[in-house]
Amino acid sequence: MKEIINRIECLKRQKNAVILAHNYQIPEVQDIADFVGDSFALSKKAKEMTCDIIVFCGVHFMAESAKILSPEKTVLLPARDAGCPMAEMITAEDVAELRKQYPDAAVICYVNSSAEVKAVSDICCTSSNALKVVRSVPNRRIIFIPDENLGNYVAQQVPDKEIILFNGFCTTHKRVKVDEVDAAKRVLPDAKLLIHPECTPEVVKKADFVGSTAQIIDYATNSDDKEFIIGTEQGIMHWLQKNNPGKKFYLLSQKLICPNMKKTTLKEVLNSLENMTYEIKLSQEEISRAYSSLNKMLNVG
Ligand code: 13P
Ligand code: SF4
Asked: Tell me: the pLDDT tens digits for 105-147?
């Protein structure tokens, strides 16, 4: 492993590359990354960092967003088939159909979506800023795509808006059942329950705190509490445990593993830097059409 890490470091310097990793990546990948974060922070970093190459350790839509925000950089996705099932649940045609049905509505698009869907949306959001983005648009009626659970979570907090939901979902977070939450709370009555909004409304309702992966990390790190039940993908446990030695973290369910987030290994990262694989390629037209929705989101914060 040491040998692979040394070669990665060397190639990074030679090629002026940076490694960005999502909080769900395997520990070895998080540890060699220049920056680890949630979808929002990673998009911001991709735009701001001065480098020639971004090796994006995450899933396809994240690397694609990095390319849209930073078209002059070469963006590499080390595991070619690391996709997100939720992003594949909606097409640009679905959005056109919804727009026809609700012509006065603004379309807010969760970043877990393809470039072509972003291109036909008004503004993007992530789980960390969805509420802020919804409040930022003047329209009373909003079409929220594709995550029904995140949309529902936001809708509860904006009674003055009418939120039209689409039936997309995260195949990993949706697997968590409310019985598992009740069982975990019985065994660990003093632990705080931290939940990602991609979980179902029944599960979200039981949470002490709901937030993106980075917000869950911040909450646990800054809290005086000592025990936490973590209701999001298992990869987040690495950062939590590494940086909070005095605290205990319990994964809510063993089902909380996203197979696509586990496809990137150190070997793939090395291969990526050696052979410049797999480069995200988008036409100038695709980039300029999707840029506006993503950039508006960054401006909202
Ligand atoms: P965040 O890191 O933005 O919370 O995203 C979670 C997720 O499921 C990404 O695929
Ligand atoms: Fe997609 Fe869910 Fe995996 Fe995130 S955790 S990449 S939303 S399937």
From this structure: 999 999 999 999 999 999 999 999 999 999 999 999 999 999 9
215: Cβ below 6 Å to ligand 1?
A: no
| Residue where one domain finishes, among candidates 146, 165, 184 | 165
Ligand 1, atom 10, residue with closest C-alpha: 112
The predicted model scores a pTM of 0.97
Domain that holds residue 222: 173-251
Say if ligand 2 is within 6 A of residue 38 CB: no
Torsional sign, CA 261, 211, 173, 164: negative
Task: Report the CATH number that the domain containing residue 132 is assigned in CATH.
Answer: 3.40.50.10800
Question: Is the CB–ligand 2 distance for residue 261 below 6 Å?
Answer: yes
- Is the residue at 53 inside a domain? yes
Domain membership of residue 288 (yes or no) is no
Query: How would DSSP label each residue in 70-94?
Result: -TTSEEE-SSTT---GGGGG--HHH
Distance 182 CA to ligand 1 centre (A): 24
- Mind listing the pLDDT tens digit for each residue in 224-258? 999 999 999 999 999 999 999 999 999 999 999 99
Beta-bridge partner residues of 231 = 195
